[in-house]
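thought: fold this chain, then report.
action: predict
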Amino acid sequence: MAVYDTFIEKEFKDLLEDTEIVGVIRDLAPGKKKYRSTYARFKMSKNPKKYPDTLWVRLGRGQLIDSPCSIQVMEFVNVIPKGL
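observation:
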């Protein structure tokens, strides 16, 4: 089971569930690549047991949401961010 975290700009209650999202996630696996950020195409759920991996959600200033979510990564993608 993999563990990731992500930062969100909106309220946690407004977070879309079970919808395909392209966003940035950080790998929390121990080792040299810990905290490596990458773009991915994924689905998430506030139910921690729905998908196979764990996702911790942080608000804009880094505040950690108390309970973990679940995530299913469909694909790691190479996306050029808007504005660059």
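thought: worth noting. DSSP finds no helices and five strands in the chain.
final: tokens above.
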